[in-house]
Amino acid sequence: MKEQIIAANKAANTVSGQNNRSDYRLVFDKGMQIFAEGDNRDHVYIVEQGEVELSTEVEGEKLPLVTLGPGEIFGEMALMGPGKRSASAYAAEQTELFIIPRDLIMGRLHGVDPLIGLLMSLLIDRYRDTRHQSINEALGRRDVPHFSPLDKGGHDTPFVKDWRAQKEVALKELKLAQEIQVAIERSEFVPFIQPIVTLPDEKLVGFESLIRWEHPERGLVPPFEFIPVAERTNCVQALDMLMLRHACELAPKINEAMGNPEKPVFISVNLSGVHFEKKDVVDEIRSIIKDTKVNPAFIKLEITESALVNEPMVAEKALTELKKLGVRIALDDFGTGYSSLGYLHTFSIDTIKIDRSFVQHIHSDPKSLNIVRAIVGLSKTFDLDIIAEGIESKDEIGVLNGIGCDMGQGYHFSRPMPVDDAFEFIKNR
Ligand code: C2E
Ligand code: CA
Ligand code: CA
User: Fold this and answer.
1) Among 210, 242, 334, 393, which is best to mutate for testing ligand 1, by the most ligand atoms less than 8 A from CB?
2) pLDDT per residue over 355-414, tens digit each?
3) Ligand nearest to the CA of 273
4) Residue 219: left (phi > 0), alpha (psi -120 to 50), or beta?
5) How many whole angstroms separate alpha carbon 109 and alpha carbon 312?
6) Which atom of ligand 1 is nearest to the CA of 272?
7) Which of 176, 232, 369, 426 has its CA 20 to 30 A from that of 278?
């Protein structure tokens, strides 16, 4: 029988990567061991026919845990930690099993959401701990062994290390998501604003709102440290709507400070690309504009190309609705993503923002120059405004003026600043 087991296990261990359907099925005769306590957890099993008994060994005695029939899954803890089997499985009669390699499921799970993977793994670990504890308690054993998903005692395989690292990242993310929620309630998120000027005469025409986290311990936290996490954990909409509300309240004051110019000075607000997958974002924007009674001509919404790519029909509908509100739309980071003329033609866009990566090489790299020249030409064809981002030097301005770029933004004019400083900035111009 031992040879049969070895053959069966060998087959089970070779299932991954093979397409032949029969390789995923194994038949075990009555009494054969499917896996033993202490084996590696590398497969998950589904009972197709027959019966499987799971048992654990307590002080040399076999203690049955459960008997499973067709349609039931076992070995599912393999989905989680890479540790060892905590029970043995036997065929209680002739049994056919469908075998799924652990890696296959793990790949899918992590592809969907690492956080969900982590939470599932913690839950299953907890469940397993509880199961073992109750067995031990029922047997009156005091020395309850603690089962961990990880090999302890310095015997970490690279796989275990990897799993541990993933767990650490996911836990950090989970904590950060919670911190963001609390920080919203404590009003720790504030906008900084950065001027946008016309070229070549450098007249102030607008500001971009850029979120900052005034963290009580960490100081001023830049967006790249929390926006991606906020996007993955569903709290970015709250942040963006907060910034929109700020902008709507600020814009009339800015325009007043500017002496109510003929052409409204706008404030641009960044909208994360994940919004358009949600139905209610347009409604929320509409209600903020209504609530604050802002002149919608003061507000511009910046979206990235990726927001349009994932669900173009949904995005198109949303943009049309937004335009009806009277706000303007800018396509941010143009040239970095999936740039296509199709977007400019199909979507209701007013402004293109050329990404900093092209602008910063514009006077040294002919390729960048050609790209920017082409984008500027394109914007004229489609009658769009164009803003060059990340201008840091006079040289760059010279080149941009030469090719007819309308507007610019960058450290050369001003870094993003707290709202109060912006009023000083306006006064001093
Ligand atoms: P972005 O929308 O492309 O914003 C421009 C970024 O370039 C800003 O970084 C700005 O500070 C920086 N910048 C401006 N001029 C220069 C320059 O001359 N040189 C250099 N090196 N950098 C310059 P920041 O504020 O760190 O924001 C980074 C990104 O975070 C933004 O890129 C945007 O994608 C995102 N973000 C910022 N605020 C929000 C927000 O309220 N909501 C969402 N969803 N995303 C935001
Ligand atoms: Ca932007
Ligand atoms: Ca940008």
Assistant:
1) 210
2) 999 999 998 999 999 999 999 998 999 899 999 999 999 999 999 999 999 999 999 999
3) 1
4) left
5) 26
6) 44
7) 176
